[in-house]
Amino acid sequence: MTDSPSPDTASSDPIVDVILELVHERGAGKSICPSDAARCFAERRARPGDPPDLWRKYLPAARQQALALARAGRIVILRRGKPQDPNKPIKGVIRLALPPENS
User: Fold this and answer.
1) What's the CA gap between 46 and 65, in Å, rounded?
2) Most buried residue, 28, 51, 87, 99, by CB count within 10 Å?
3) What φ, ψ does residue 76 adopt, rounded to 5°?
4) Taking the model in full, what pTM does it have?
5) HSE-up of residue 102 (Cα within 13 Å, Cβ side)
6) What's the CA gap between 103 and 20, in Å, rounded?
7) Number of alpha carbons in the 13 Å side-chain half-sphere of residue 18
8) Measured between alpha carbons, how far is 64 from 34 in angstroms, rounded to an integer?
């Protein structure tokens, strides 16, 4: 992974920072899965003896923070490759990407 997020993207929530870091790393036109963010976050917090699926504990928080970021216009949530309205329920498999204006 890269160094910590720049001051203009840093937040008080480390999961938000991980999501933003990963979507910026992937770049324009590419996306990440919320589980990528949960895995990265769990990997950074892991202690010896933690279960290998610790990331699953952080997946709901990653999805919730992704919704908040999408509502703020900082990322876009994709389902089947199409942008979704973050103010409506989104079920199923989603991907997270930079908004087109950040491309």
Assistant:
1) 20
2) 99
3) -125, 140
4) 0.85
5) 16
6) 14
7) 24
8) 10
